[in-house]
Design a protein that fits this description.
It is a single chain. The protein is of the alpha/beta class. The chain has 12 helices and 7 strands. It has a domain of 167 residues: Rossmann fold (3-Layer(aba) Sandwich), CATH 3.40.50. Strand 4, helix 6 and strand 5 form a beta-alpha-beta unit. The protein is globular and about 45 Å long. The N and C termini lie far apart (38 Å).
Length: 241
């Protein structure tokens, strides 16, 4: 087991803690995430020859993307958790190269890098983002917006996100965009996604109707007040920095 005092990798993804809280390693969310990425790519006419997914888990997002990509597209996933890599079906690994390695160590040179629901898990997230910046021509980030009026008032959602999801940092739309800017990325496009409406079950079903209504009226206000939203960002390295 790596020495947690010097290893930049969060231990919960190495020692089985995360697997215990998410036995399928969020495989059930992969199709939805892939569709968000696909929509952004289509909007901007992106046809990358190579795609890297940082923190790819079981490789599910790349698997779903591959179904509508040319067979020549190079697909590489970096995943530091041995448990997640072990869950990846062998047939999937015939199409996708899954590298069991800390994502910051990837060689780079990709046309597009996906960083989906990862930044909030990394201790030194600023250093992490700066390290990734030179490794691809374009980036698509997906960042949960844990900070909202209702989460601040209730406080408990932050504790739950930390304990069950491993979130170490909490963002609003403005702070997420500022973080990308401060670490050398230029935002090309951004949109709000709705995991609280599309994915979450259980008690959160009661919040779906008001979330939907608020989102239709004013998406950014709904994210600031109600929570349950994430930010999808298409960005490129800021050449001026």
């Amino acid at each position: 087991m790596p020495d947690s005092s010097s290893d930049p990798r969060p231990s919960r993804y190495l020692d089985g803690t995360q697997l215990a809280t998410a036995p399928d390693w969020y495989e059930s969310d992969a199709a939805w995430k892939a569709e968000q990425v696909r929509d952004m790519m289509r909007k901007h006419g992106m046809e990358p020859g190579s795609i890297c997914d940082v923190g790819c888990g079981t490789g599910g997002v790349l698997d779903h993307l591959s179904r509508t990509l040319p067979p020549t597209t190079k697909l590489v996933g970096y995943e530091m958790s041995p448990q997640a890599v072990a869950l990846a079906p062998e047939a999937r690994k015939q199409r996708i190269t899954v590298v069991s390695e800390w994502a910051a160590e990837c060689e780079g040179g990709f046309d597009l890098m996906l960083v989906l629901d990862v930044v909030e898990h990394v201790d030194d997230y600023l250093g992490f983002l700066r390290t990734l910046r030179g490794k691809a021509g374009s980036f698509i980030f997906h960042i949960p917006l844990d900070v909202s009026v209702q989460t601040v008032l209730r406080a408990s959602p932050f504790t739950r996100a930390r304990e069950s999801l491993g979130h170490l940092h909490y963002f609003s739309r403005d702070t997420a965009l500022a973080t990308l800017h401060d670490t050398g990325y230029a935002t090309v496009d951004e949109s709000l996604t709705q995991p609280g409406i599309d994915l979450w079950g259980g008690k959160s079903r009661l919040a779906r109707l008001p979330r939907k209504a608020a989102f239709r009226l004013n998406p950014r206000l709904a994210a600031r007040v109600m929570g349950g939203f994430s930010l999808l960002v298409l960005a490129r390295p800021d050449e001026a920095r």
